[in-house]
Recover the amino acids of this structure.
């Protein structure tokens, strides 16, 4: 029972009350320190954060015992046309992120909404990221994305190092539609998030919010599969993603040290991932948390 070399620690819970199954709220700083100490001791070197995660970057910066490699993200640009002010905002925010986390290496900078590259003048955002990389201020640049069609457009027109995207037992579309293979062929790192679908995959069926009633039969079949294979939802969800060869990093957020210990002590599980294709659904109403009501 060893920590996966692919595991990266998500930090949104350090700065926000986040997650459909999270009863604990934002993680206190004392708990953050315990989590990060344990993570480093178990060989976890990468933290995924963002200026949009409340005061998560400050919480990381307050911890100075061990250095981590940081992935952070730009602000979100909601308007249709990108301006020079947006370029300046990226630089200013990146400098602030560096200042907030001075004892850590801000190694990767991602555009928080990758689709902003497809806005009018979107290439200006890319040029700003590229200049930061060329100046040696950041090692990797990339995008965080939801939509596969937008992703195909982005990697066709922009030379990026990292794509961060959602992937889990219910949301397997990017594996089956060839996107993973295409990214791997272009030597683009694949960082997956939402492995537990904000905790939805780990919730007891009796606690399932009524919004998810249409997929409850599917989740019941998944529960039966777990029982037949004598394993837990946590183990299946993580080990399924871990074994996809194209995936570079698996970003998992925790609210407590106990949750991280549980995650790093998962038993091994031999899975033929094509067996789990039966649980894949192509319905963003349920696979994309921003659509949840």
């Amino acid at each position: 029972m060893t920590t996966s070399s692919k595991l990266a620690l998500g930090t949104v819970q350090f700065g926000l009350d986040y997650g459909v199954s999270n009863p604990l709220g934002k993680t206190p700083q004392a708990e953050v320190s315990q989590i990060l100490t344990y993570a480093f001791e178990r060989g976890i070197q990468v933290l995924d954060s963002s200026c949009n995660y409340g005061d998560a970057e400050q919480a990381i910066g307050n911890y100075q015992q061990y250095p981590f490699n940081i992935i952070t993200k730009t602000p979100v640009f909601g308007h249709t046309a990108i301006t020079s002010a947006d370029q300046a905002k990226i630089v200013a925010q990146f400098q602030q992120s560096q200042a907030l986390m001075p004892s850590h290496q801000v190694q990767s900078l991602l555009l928080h909404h990758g689709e902003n590259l497809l806005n009018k003048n979107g290439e200006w955002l890319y040029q700003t990221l590229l200049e930061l990389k060329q100046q040696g201020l950041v090692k990797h640049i990339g995008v965080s994305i939801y939509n596969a069609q937008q992703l195909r457009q982005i990697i066709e027109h922009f030379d990026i190092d990292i794509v961060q995207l959602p992937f889990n037992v219910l949301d397997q579309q990017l594996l089956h539609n060839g996107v993973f293979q295409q990214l791997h062929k272009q030597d683009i790192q694949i960082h997956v998030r939402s492995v537990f679908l904000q905790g939805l995959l780990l919730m007891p069926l009796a606690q399932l919010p009524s919004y998810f009633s249409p997929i409850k039969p599917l989740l019941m079949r998944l529960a039966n599969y777990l029982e037949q294979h004598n394993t837990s939802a946590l183990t299946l969800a993580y080990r399924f993603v871990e074994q996809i060869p194209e995936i570079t990093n698996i970003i998992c957020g925790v609210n407590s040290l106990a949750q991280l210990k549980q995650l790093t002590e998962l038993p091994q599980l031999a899975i033929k991932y094509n067996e789990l294709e039966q649980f894949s659904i192509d319905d963003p109403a349920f696979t994309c948390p921003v659509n949840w009501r």
Q: What stands out?
A: The chain is about 40% helix and 15% strand. The domain at 7-291 is CATH 3.20.20.100 (TIM Barrel). The chain has one domain: 7-291.
